[in-house]
Design goal:
This protein has 18 helices and 12 strands. The protein is α/β, with parallel strands linked by helices and about 400 residues long. It has a 6-stranded parallel beta sheet with strand order 2-1-3-4-5-6, sandwiched between helices. Strands 9-8-7-10-11-12 form a 6-stranded parallel beta sheet, sandwiched between helices. Helix 2 packs across helix 18 and helix 10 crosses helix 16. The radius of gyration is 22 Å and the shape is globular.
Amino acid sequence: MNSGSASGTLSVFMVAGEESGDQLGSRLMGALIRQTGGAVRFAGMGGARMQALGLSPLFPLQDIAVMGITAVLGRLPTILRRIRQTVDAVLEASPDVLVIVDSPDFTHRVAKAVRKARPDLPVVAYVSPTVWAWRPGRARAMAAYVDHLLAILPFEPEVHARLGGPPTSYVGHPLTDRPDLLLPGPDERPPVGQADPPVLLVLPGSRGGEVARCLPDLGAAVAGIAAAGLRPEVVIPAVRHVEDRIREGTAGWAIPPRIVVGEEMKFAAFRAAHAAIAVSGTVTLELALAGVPMTVIYRRDPVFRIVTEVVRRIPGQVTVRSMVLPNIILGDNVVPEHLDSGIDAAVLAREAMSLLVPGEARRRQVAGFRRLWDLMRPPGAAPAADAAAAVVLRAAGR
């Protein structure tokens, strides 16, 4: 009998590998606490938010919160050691259910090893790897060690059914639970033709490597806007661990940016913004739901770029034509995007300026973003974390 079951208290082992997983994991933990009346005990791996709800982490989250092949290779011995340590901890804890959250390069390796040692232990994965974008064979492979997948994008259940993946439920995206965070109030975003000055968000990414690779392109685009005689208010929402790097990198910009830190300030900036130039990532979905038209760039880690270009030449391994989440969900490339050598600062400047005035470029994106809310509304009325918690409880036999 599992240790949690013996006491009547649900035992949940959580494994999250980076900041986004810590946010999702903490919301899920809160929902499990509510739905069990507090009769739940947590163990595992997570960040500050999960720790605040009672999780004692096995090791610092920074040990495994890396992205890009170069970064992973540089820390590979540590990552492999942490995988083994996490697997050993799961087996020792003997929980009622194992929940892995995002960060598939780490969490799925843990789940595979646990499944091999304890095939009877239910495994729930929260967030699908991007099998709909590349390497679709991962879906069928997941079915061997994941009992249920919690999807946060509405098209993912159909994709996994088609590819032979694990049973998958769309539980809703956490962003759709809080429209008050994203949608502007009456006085927060003046009409674009009346704003003086309009607000331009610049979003350089949340990881150090992304900021280093992409910030010079963003600065050149801002310089192009200034050279054309337009002076928007430039606002950069920054996460704290890259704040200093952003401040140093923007010190000489043609339009000095206002840098804001923290989620509250970030979403306030979103509600006030008229347009954005963003590095590709989840932030593009946040912008779209906030109704902020944008142009998007990305520069890949050099090693990852080589690997992905090799994979791209293998038939059937790359299956989407966009790197921008709103485009993928809408099935329509309403947001312009620029990758690697395709990034041209003059083009970025022209696109951003066309979004800071009334016109067709702006209208088309805003109309698409209104449709996005309908597409992302989950089938039930429950918040995303509550819907996710209900699946975890069923997997644990509760």
